[in-house]
Amino acid sequence: MGVKSTMRSIKHPALSLLACLFVVVLSVPPVTAQSSQPDSVQLNSNVPMTYIVQKGDTLWDISGIYLKEPWRWPMLWDNNPQIDNPHLIYPGDVLELSWQAGRPRLRLASRGDVKLSPSLRSEALDAAIPPIPRDEIDPFLRANRVLEPGDFEKLPYLIAGDAQRLLSSLGDKVYGRGPIDAVDRTYGVARKGSPIVDPVSGEMLGVHIGDIGNASLLASVDAEFLDAEVKEFEVTRITEEVRIGDRLIPVEEGILDAYFQPKSPDADIEDGFMVAVDGGVTQIGQMDIVTINRGKREGLGVGDVLAIYQTGEVVIDPIAGDAVSLPDARAGVLMIFAAYEKASYGLVLSASRPLSVGDKVKNPSV
Q1: DSSP per-residue codes, 134-190
Q2: Are strands 186-197 and 173-177 parallel, antiparallel or unpaired?
Q3: CA separation (Å) from 252 to 141, 149, 209, 249, 340?
Q4: Which of 11, 56, 84, 213 is the most buried (most CB within 10 A)?
Q5: 3-class secondary structure, 330
Q6: Distance (Å, rounded) from C-alpha 214 to C-alpha 240?
């Protein structure tokens, strides 16, 4: 372009779970061109034409530099022969912004640290650039679940502790009664939390349950044991002391993706609200976990991104003298990381102002 390239380091605002240092190579004047096609992604102002991938970057971070709506990151990378899999870019790789059919695309301009023979990367595969990691969300998921209304009362429960103790701790014996499947040797110990109520319809959407610990069946699987109304357990893990009346729930096993893939929802989400926040705080900010009143039945899934809006203020028109409601103000973005039938947990990725329970969530749009 006839302009001498310069290199400088910048700090980019944290939109991901990782604090990132970016190194930007500016080779042309600030980019402002946008595609007029309605399905095209929208670029931020003054985006760099060339970017050097840094250790600790995620696809979300890099996309946040370029895109007004970073959850549209697949559109920035798709149909890209230079990057067959954008997850497999590495620190040191140089990315270059270009346009294809009027749409912005990131292409791989050059590789970073590579071996010339046998032409394989020297970086391990686990050093590849991921989307949003699960590290800070998994502890919450292990400690919290949502059950359908009435399901909590159907769970087996602890009827007694050893030596008639009311509270039990690690290594203590406890006794459970109810529909206990002897095939499941390990159970979670759960306690009922607050109900989740739809603020629009008043429908009971579910109930939070909190993690108290784990308990393992002790008896062998024989006919007498299988027919026993009360079964013996040993407390093997606790987050707090186990009480009589706590419920037993089979431990969920399964393989979880290591990363979340942010995307726009496939369905139109209507009358969505943040109805609770983890930790009982009154103001919600970036990286806080919230509960929303929409779930799988409304078409929400893990990775779906929703925009957060605050109800517009009511002001007095100084000319007409009547009260007028201002438009809702966009105030942040959240990503769904656990979707249940009628409710979901979301992580606030960004917040431009203090948020609170009762704020609206909608499909993201430019």
Answers
A1: STTTHHHHHHEEEE-TTTGGGS-EEEEEGGG-SEE-TT-EEEEESS--TT--EEEEE
A2: unpaired
A3: 11, 19, 14, 9, 14
A4: 213
A5: strand
A6: 11
| Average pLDDT, 10 consecutive residues per value, the chain (366 residues) | 33 34 32 45 87 82 84 72 64 86 82 48 50 75 88 94 90 92 82 94 95 86 64 93 94 64 89 90 86 96 93 90 91 92 93 92 82
Residue range 320-359, pLDDT digits in tens:
999 998 899 999 999 999 999 999 999 998 888 899 999 9
The Cα–Cα gap between 315 and 309 comes to 18
Going by their DSSP bridges, the two strands 259-260 and 247-250 should be labelled as: unpaired
d(CA 28, CA 185): 63
Residue 366 CA to residue 364 CA, distance in Å, equals 7
| Superfamily classification of domain 259-362 | FlgT, C-terminal domain (2.40.10.410)
pTM (whole model) above 0.85? no
Q: Please state the φ and ψ torsions of residue 187, each to the nearest 5 degrees.
A: -125, 150
HEC profile of 21-55: EEEEEECCCCECCCCCCCCCCCECCCECCEEECCC
Beta-carbon contacts of 198 under 8 Å, excluding residues fewer than 6 positions away, are 204, 205, 275, 293
CB–CB of 64/12 below 8 Å? yes
Q: Which two tokens stand for residue 225?
A: 């044991």
Please provide residue 223's backbone torsions phi and psi, each rounded to the nearest 5 degrees.
Answer: -60, -40
CB contact at 8 A, 209 and 140: no
